[in-house]
Fold this sequence. Notes:
single chain, alpha+beta, Multidrug efflux transporter AcrB transmembrane fold, Alpha-Beta Plaits, five-stranded antiparallel β-sheet, 24 helices, SSD, transmembrane, Mycobact_MmpL, transmembrane helix, cell membrane
Amino acid sequence: MARLLQRLGYFSVRRRRLVLGTWLIGLVALAGLAMAFKGTFSDEFKVPGTESQRAIELIEQAVPQSNADGATGRVVFAAAKGEQLDAAALNGAVKQLAAVPDVASATPPITSEDGRIAYTDLQFSIPQMEVDATQTDAIEKAADGAATQVEFGGAAAHVESEPPVGEVLGVLVAMVVLAITFGSLLAAGLPLLTALIGVGAGMLGIQLASGITDLTSTSVTLAAMLGLAVGIDYALFILSRHRTQVHDGMSIPDSIALAAGTAGSAVVFAGSTVMIALVALVMTGTPFLAQMGIAAAGSIAIAVLASLTLVPALLAFAGHRLVRGKTFTAAAAASDAKPTLGARWVAIVMRRPVVASGLVIVALGALAIPALNVRLGLPNDGSSNPDTTTRQAYDLVSEGFGVGANGQLTLVAQGGDPKATAAAITKLPDVAAVTPPQEIPGKDLALISVTPSSGPSSEATENLVNTIRDTRFDGEVLVTGQTATNIDVSQKMSSSLIPYLAVVVGLALLLLMVAFRSILVPLTAIGGFLLTIAASFGAVVLVFQEGVGAELIGVGQTGPLVSLLPVLIIGVIFGLAMDYQVFLVSKMHEEFAHGASARDAVRDGFRGSARVVTAAALIMISVFAGFILPDDPIIKSIGFAFAVGILIDAFLVRMTLIPALMTLLGARAWWLPRWLDRLIPNLDIEGTAIERAPKKAHPRVAEGGSPITAL
Length: 711
């Protein structure tokens, strides 16, 4: 693979104008196609085969005009404190709301006992992904003036697109880190430029795909987040290798090609592990999670392609101007009168490896403890920022009707006596109200609405749903609604978590065994990965569920974690953790293969790669942390989880625990049975084969002198 990538590097140098032009033309073509065929995005979470989804399908079949699969919204009216709503104005507004295009129906207004607060529920004839400003603006206009305060929830709320403040801040921090690392603005700008081009191509591809299949808006954010982070990191690894080689006297064209073959091999390996882990999300059986995984994997594939073609082309355009500034090699670090922070750190770790590894394991184990009490669910309007109309609508309904009115349950009763069923449910704990059964003419089916006493995300409401499902009624009773859907999705995620983790761990063992031709190195890597996952879960539970420090990052309301988060953390952090494992340990392996003692290999390998890995980790953390700023609770929790996960994995696991364990293992770390050594392929991710090959100028590059200086 290294030789193939080296040849690709030479091609990108010779045909740099063609490579750059192809990327730019491809972007323009993708933009045109995306504009012509793009669709809309949805935030609906459906899991086929669950009880809540079967209930919705039954309603849709029995009452096609009910639009049970359509979007729902709520408009809340409130008079000033101590006053009552004007009934005539309220009824007039509801009548106008029912006439809004794509609104199938608006329920008669339900008014609180004191007459100050009322709400109407809207049923749309179109799915949520098709509701846009056309409908929400008309809804706002229809409700305007009916009360002192009018708020909107669900699909009725007009959601303003937030400016990409977080993304911009993440890029700015990345620019600062790169500038400090390389001591050159030009060198700092190249990884950012290639990453942004790659992300642009990925986003346009997702826009185009949205016209073909249903995609969630979270898919876009996750793909952008990962594409930007790994795009910068992968370009950084190739650029740093190139600058080091030129500093050691290699010609520009040969250095670019060699960097593409050596660091590029590690990029392909690391990118492949991330993509495989993300595509494996398909095995969870949840369409929205599979969509997110495939979209993100596509974005990473583009980042890898950009690193192997666009980066070498731009390096060729830049020539010697790009290699001015700082270089960081093991030799440079060794000759420096003042040892670097990385050199001092690894010396401390190697001096007391038992203490270092013990402290990391104990600290991460303690941080993981809150994960034992994790609760999973889906966000609702009560999770929104207090300043948003959706949160204010939620709070007004809670004030006027009780918090349970924000999460009513719908029961589908088939056969038996629905009135007896309703009467039995009335006697259950945590039930605030039960409507009389609405029997469907000509169908042996009735609908019953249940208002819990607790909110949709509370344990009491979850217990109520489970009690209804466990109770034997006269006939079959299916439960749907927000809480029921939360339970079904969470159970689906929980049941797929262990199998998915097993697949990811098995994949990691296999790939790392092939990459490093060792048994113990993969085992230490997996142990560190599991510690990272457990500690990351614990940190997220501590902040988003228990509320410790929640106000510091703008968490509107604590509650259950987003159901998809644990699986996402495993998939994404696994792939990114393997990045740092590969780039750190491959350097140690390279030193050991070249004759260094096991201890010297750990020390010199760490010193030769610590700076670039530190820079890469800081960049990735800054990109992920930028996504904590938006109000969207899903995006906020994902950004926080990824940022904390990389912080833990890069600095505590890969740069502390792994060197300590490698020191303790010594030469045994690289042991592999001979029979197994003969069976597994040699990937040569360090590119040692091409580094040991006789150095000679590439014929097409050498003709007429260096093409770099001819620009």
